[in-house]
Every structure is written in C-alpha cells, then in structure tokens.
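Re: the request from the purification team.
They wanted to know what the chain is likely to look like in 3D before they choose a buffer screen. I agreed to run a prediction and write the result into the notebook, where they can find it.
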Amino acid sequence: MESSSKYLQNAVDALSSLPGIGRKTAMRLALHILNRSEEEVADFANAVAEMKAHIQFCKKCFNLSDGELCAVCSSPKRDRNMLCVVEDIRDIIAIEATHQYFGRYHVLGGVISPMDGIGPSDLHIEELLVRVKDENITEILMALSTTLEGDTTSYYLSKRLSEFGITLTTIARGVSVGDNLEYADEITLGKSIVHRVPYETSINSQN
C-alpha cells in the first residue's frame, strides 16, 4: 500500500511494526492521527515518550513500575505471604483484571524452552528462591501458560521449591491447554484462580 506522501508512508511503516497492527490498520491510524490537532498529537507523542523514559522494572518482582517498587509490592493491602509466579507482565494485567487474586507476583521473564535456547539461568528463578527464603512466603501459585514449556517450567520450579516446605498450587485447568493467560477471558481465569489446586494434584490428573 503506497502513499503519495513519504511522511505518511513512514508513519504507516512505524505503526505496522507494532504487534497485531497490519498495514491497513496502520494506514487508518495514521490518517486518524493526521486529522487530530497539533496539540492532541503532541500529547500522544509525549505520553509515549514519557512511558519509555520513566517506566522501569520493579526491583523485587520485575513488574512494570514508576519507581523502585511496583504498586503491588508496595501495597500494604496485598497478602505478603503469597506469590503468583507468571511468565510475562501481560499475565499480571490479565490476573489483576479478574479481581480474584490478592497476593503479590513474581515475573519470570519467560519459560524454559530448550528449542529457543532459554534455560533456567535465563529466567528470574534465583531471585524467586531468594524471595521465598527471605519473605516468609507460605504459598506459591504457579500461573504459567498451559503449554509444554509452561508445564516444564512449573515442574522445574516445583523441584527447586520443594526444600522450602511451602504450599505449591496451580491454576485450575479452566484455561485451555496451549493457551497463554492473557488470552483467557476474565471469568474463566478468575475461576481458575479461586479454584486453584495443589500442584501435585494437577500433575497426577495429567497422567
């Protein structure tokens, strides 16, 4: 899709580089931006620039944060004895939308995937073990994707965490096998959290 303006074409190229945005959608967005006032466009550009400049990773759980600690880790209202282990920041967003989880989080930054060259040392697993040791954690909810890689990671974590004698749970299998949490609807995901099961039970049910 060629444009009569190189500036419009550059905008389309930039927008279409975003995930889930095809060139037709990028063209519609570019034309929409073009029709907005200079002030609105400046506000939009400034919001994106400030987001990139100021958002950082929480030093404790690796969630997005405006400061050293994210809003969840610094909240006195959250259950400080429970951690929900997730693969990605997007999973936190999905779980928070259910309003059914009240503990804190730990973002691994991925899952174990030998085919992609990702091993345990590439994830925030050692940091998780330190938190369990230092923060009086009594339960860990493993809310990883229901894929082979997600299951492999959960199994690895269960072995590493076994020495601490804490409760290990996993989300109920309301989330379809092969799905990522961010694609599960809020009701299904919420019920899967409320009806979480002991990790060993989930393993036995798959055999």
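For the purification team: Residues 75-206 form a domain with the Dna Topoisomerase Vi A Subunit; Chain: A, domain 2 fold (CATH 3.40.1360.10).
Please add any questions underneath this entry.
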